[in-house]
């Protein structure tokens, strides 16, 4: 379903149009965590190849890494790294010909100052360019009471809505952890905290929808990382029940909520498709693309071991410059990401569906 959205970073109404196109078309977009220009470029290349829009996001640790792990002030690095990444994506995305939304990932209460600082950068960017730096940030206040989660989220959204930004919140708990934010799984426990209650989703809708655009990471047994199966059962029907409660309470159209699927790595394609049918427009993917990068580099190192030990072969004098050149093996890693993402676009039904085409 082609619309008239210009390729490049989408924010505000353009981002909402990309989301509506996904919902109407019955597909969702992968949101891929990046740590540097190598992974950013691989995601852009993958999206262009799949002719799909895509979401690029940074965890707080990814943002810090983007600025440089050796940067002396880690908080400043988390801010500057995120800004640096966003500037790179703003410059490059339109030239890849697809729409790209820029997000940040989990921020718990301790990381609110990080999000505040980034919104500050977006406010200045909005003044100068008429659009924010990021499309959306996430506040994960699922460890707090529902009331505190919603009141802090509402305050942040008040500020963000003025500059066409969207907020992602978390209700219930995604298992596992992402960059130190998250929860360990208790083996053998009923893990009922991993399932969002539809009543919580209704409370969030009531509180936030009058303020601005928001999305909800609802928990339906999803877990960060790849764990051995059997610990938690994925129950996408929880999403369906949440949508139904809002539809009936507020007489909305079908699937009024914009839902986010965290912990998508390693999920079965039929569960992914089911979640998408209940209004998931964004599926986070990190673990699987990390592994795709590492696996491809690992294979390359195995096949070219001598080039990683010697500049020149000690026996026959063969120069290895062309093999240890970082462009060789970083490129192999990028290609690993590009290939893995083709599967993600296909699983989500997004291949060939860019709203920019
Ligand atoms: Zn997550």
Could you tell me the number of beta strands? Answer: 11
CATH topology: TIM Barrel
The helical percent reads 40-55%
Overall pLDDT score: 92
CATH class: Alpha Beta
Order of helices and strands: EHEHEHHEHEHEEEHEHEHEHHH
Instruction: List unreliable stretches of 5+ residues.
Output: none
Summarize it.
The protein has 357 residues and is α/β, with parallel strands linked by helices. Helices cover 48% and strands 13% of the residues.
Descriptive keywords:
alpha/beta; TIM Barrel; 9-stranded parallel sheet; binds zinc ion
Detailed description of the structure:
This protein has 357 residues and is α/β, with parallel strands linked by helices. It has a single domain (8-347), classed as Aldolase class I (TIM Barrel, Alpha-Beta Barrel). It contains 12 helices and 11 strands. The protein has helices at 12-25, 37-50, 60-67, 74-96, 112-129, 146-161, 198-208, 237-250, 269-277, 287-303, 321-324, 326-347, and strands spanning 8-9, 29-33, 54-58, 99-104, 136-139, 166-171, 176-178, 181-183, 214-218, 259-261, 280-285. It has a 9-stranded parallel beta sheet with strand order 1-4-3-2-11-10-9-6-5. The protein has a two-stranded antiparallel ribbon with strand order 7-8. The longest helix has 23 residues, at 74-96. The termini are close together. The mean pLDDT is 92. The structure holds zinc ion (ZN). Zinc ion is lined by residues 106, 174, 178, 224, 262, 284.
